[in-house]
Design a protein that fits this description.
The structure is a single chain. The protein is mostly helical. The protein has one domain (25-98). The chain has 3 helices and no strands.
């Protein structure tokens, strides 16, 4: 049997960055209760909740930025529409002919 460390995909990732927070006793008790309800210790709970919140905040921010950019592009297209292509003209003529207009 080998005594070398496992190289499987389930090997633990090294966690060498540290976060610290000062909280009130009431806040700690509240977080501890929530962690227990999730079946996690306080550290696991805090890391998971912070990661979830950070991910959501980033998604919300990116969505807002895309929305503003898209709104600007849409307004620009309305104010300065591109010239229709020859195919667009042909399609419009076909439509008028088919619809007897």
């Amino acid at each position: 049997m080998s005594t070398e460390p496992s190289t499987s995909k389930t090997a633990k990732i090294r966690k060498n960055a540290r976060l610290e927070a000062r909280v009130t006793a009431e806040q700690k008790q509240l977080m501890q209760r929530a962690a227990e309800l999730r079946g996690q210790n306080l550290t696991e709970f805090m890391v998971a909740v912070l990661a979830e919140a950070a991910t959501q905040i980033i998604k919300d921010n990116e969505f807002i930025q895309l929305t503003q950019r898209d709104r600007s592009l849409f307004a620009e297209a309305l104010l300065n529409p591109p010239t229709p292509s020859p195919q667009a003209y042909a399609d419009a003529q076909w439509y008028q002919k088919v619809m007897n207009k």
